[in-house]
Amino acid sequence: MTHIVYVPIDATARSVGADDVAAAIAREAAARGEPVQIVRNGTRGLCWLEPLVEVATPAGRVAYGPVDVADVAALFAADFLRGGAHPLAHGRTDDITWLESQERLTFARVGITDPLSLADYREHGGLRGLRAALSAKTGSDIVEEVVRSGLRGRGGAAFPAGIKWRTVAGAPGPQKYVCCNADEGDSGTFSDRMLMEGDPYVLLEGMTIAGLAVGADQGYIYLRSEYPDAERTLLAAIEAARAAGWLGRDVLGSGRAFDIELRRGAGAYICGEETAMLESLEGKRGMVRPKPPLPAISGLFGKPTVINNVITLASVPIILDRGGQYYADYGMGRSRGTLPFQLAGNIKRGGLVEKAFGLTLRQLVYDFGGGTASGRPVRAVQVGGPLGPYLPESKFDVPLDYEAFAAAGGMIGHGGLVVFDDTVDMALMARYAMEFCAIESCGKCTPCRIGSTRGVEVIDRIRKNERRGPNLALLRDLCDTMTHGSLCAMGGLTPAPVLSALEHFPEDFQR
Amino acid sequence: MSSDAIDQALAQSGHLPGGLLQVLHGIADRLGHIPPEAIGRVAAALNLSRAEVHGVVSFYHDFRSEPPGRHVLKLCRAEACQAMGSEALAGALERRLGCKFGETSPGGAVTLEPVYCLGNCAAAPSLLLDGQLRGRLTGERLDRLVDALVAPAEERA
C-alpha cells in the first residue's frame, strides 16, 4: 500500500525547510522500501509547526511538526507512516484545538488539497459557486446574492462588495474589468498569499463570478513582486484552468467568456491603494488618483472596474454555492461572515485563524496565539497593518467587528495582528511609521510626501529631548494635517500608529 | 547581450495593454537591472516618451539602474520582523558585508536591500536571498547564509 505524505509547498513552510524535509522523506522511504507518495499541499495555517508533515491513515490525517531533516529517520523508526507515536506527533490534524475551533469558509480547502490539482478542487466543492452563477438568470441575481451575504471588502476599507458590483453592473459601456488587488503589502498579513498558494482556483472562480455578475470578460490579478511562490502557482493555475475550459471564451461550456491575466507589481507599497494599482496596471508610476470618479465608474483604462482584494473575491464562490444567507449567518452587527485573522510578530503560535467576526484580540493573542514567542509580557498589538493603531492590553476585550473595533480606536483592516513584547520602544515604532510613509509615499499630495519626512525629524527631536513640549505639540499638529489633508489612506492613516503610541505609551517619548 | 534582453522583453510583453512594467520586469529578470540604453529603446517601441519610461523606472523599488552584486539579499524590515529582532540582524549584516542598505558589498558579492514585508510574518524574521524565502532567522543562521555567499579570500582582501 502506498502511503500518502503531505509536505506543504507554502512559502512559509519552504522558508523553514519544507523542500529539504520532503526530499529527506523520499530518500528515507526509498532506502527502507516503503512506497510513499508525497503531496505538496498548501499550509494548514499552523505556521509555528511548519514544516508540518501529515500522513494519511485510516483514521484520518495525522500531523507531525515542526519537522527538521534530522527528525526524518526517527519518524520512520516510529512508524509515522501508520500514525506512530513520536514527540513531534499532534494526533489527527482535524482534532488540533487551534484548527478545530476555527470556521474555515474561505480557507476550506487550503492545506487539504494539492493546490494545482483540478480533480482535488472539484472533489472538494470547487466550481459549485461558478455553476450556480452560470445558471442565474441575470447578472443582477448574482450581485444581489453577494449583497445578501453582507460581504465587505477584506482589503481594509470594508466597503460592501455587492454594492460596488451593483455600481459596476449599472455603469454603461461594453468593456468592463475585474481587478484583483493582490498587493498584500501590510506587515503582519499573509492570508492572500496563503490562499493564492494553497487554493488558487478559488480566486479564479471568484473573479469569474464577478465578471459574470457585472458583464466583464477580462480580469487582472495585480500581484506584488515579493510573492514569487504565489506567482508561480497562479501562472500554473491560470494555464490549467484555461486548458480545462474553466477560463477562456467558453467558461464551462456556457458560451460566456472570461479570462485572467497576471500582472506583477514592482515593490511599491502604495500600489495596494486601488487607484495607484490601476495606474500601475496601466504601466505608469503608481500615483494615487483623486476620487471621484470612482473606479466602479471609470477605472482601468477608464472603464467600469470591479476592484476587490484576494480574500473578498475568494469568498464569493461559497456565497454563490451556499447562498448569501449562509454566509451572513456568521458574524455580528454589520460585519457578516468570517475573516481570516493572521497572528504574526512576537507570538508563540503564529498562523491563520479564520473565525466569524465578534471574537476578541484576547482570544486571538492568548487562546490561539499563546502569548509572545519570547515568553515576555505582551505590550502592544498592531492590528490592520502599518497604518493601524497600536493597542495596549486594555483594548483586548473589544469585539472584532468593523464598527465596534473602530469605535474603540482600532482598525481591523486586512486582519493582521503584529504582537510586540515589553522590550519594544514605542517612540521608535512611531518614528518607523513616519519613515515608512516617507519611503513609500507616491508623492502626489504634500501632507504625505513632506509631512512624513518632517514627522521623522520631529520624533527624532522628541527622542533627543530637544524642546520636547513644543515638539510634541508640533507632532500632533502635523498628524492632524496629514489625517485631514492627505489624498488617500497612506498619508491619512500614517498618524494612527503615531498618535496611538503617544496616547497609550507616552512614557516611551519621555526617556 | 543587453540589446538581446531588451528585444526579448519587448517581444514577450510589448503588446500588452499598459504593459510597461511587464517589459521592464522582463529586462530586469534577464539583466538584473535596467541599463540606460533600455530607456530610449523601450520608449520608442511602446510609443512613450523617455521621461515616461524613466519616471516608471525611478518610481519602483524593483527597478535598479545599476547592476547588482552576484547575490541580492533583501532583509525584511517591517513591523512583524522588527518585533522578532530584525533590526539587530540588519545592523549585523551591514557590519559583516561592509555596506549599507541599498549598496553592494565591496567585493561585489552581495547587494543588500530592505524589503517591507514578505508575507512570512508568522515565521519572522525573514529575508529573500536571490528570490528564495528564508524564515525564523537568527544571528547564527544569518551568519551561515552569508558565509556561503562571501568567499573567504574576498573578505580578507
Outline the secondary-structure elements:
The complex is a heterodimer of chains A (511) and B (157).
Chain A: E1 3-6, H1 11-15, H2 18-32, E2 36-39, E3 53-57, E4 60-64, H3 72-77, E5 89-92, H4 97-100, H5 118-123, H6 128-135, H7 139-149, H8 161-170, E6 177-182, H9 191-198, H10 200-214, E7 218-223, H11 228-243, E8 259-264, H12 274-281, E9 305-309, H13 310-314, H14 316-322, H15 324-328, E10 331-332, E11 335-336, E12 338-345, E13 351-356, H16 361-368, E14 378-383, E15 390-391, H17 402-407, E16 416-421, H18 426-440, H19 446-463, H20 468-485, H21 489-493, H22 495-504
Parallel strand pairs in A: 1-2, 6-7, 6-9, 7-8, 12-16
Antiparallel strand pairs in A: 1-3, 3-4, 4-5, 10-11, 12-13, 14-15, 14-16
Chain B: H1 2-13, H2 20-31, H3 36-46, H4 50-59, E1 71-76, H5 79-82, H6 86-97, E2 103-104, E3 110-115, E4 127-129, E5 132-134, H7 139-149, H8 152-156
Parallel strand pairs in B: 1-3
Antiparallel strand pairs in B: 1-4, 2-3, 4-5
Helix pairs in contact in B: 1-2, 1-3, 3-4
Brief characterization of the structure:
The complex is a heterodimer of chains A (511) and B (157). With 511 residues, chain A is α/β, with parallel strands linked by helices. Chain A is built from 22 helices and 16 strands.
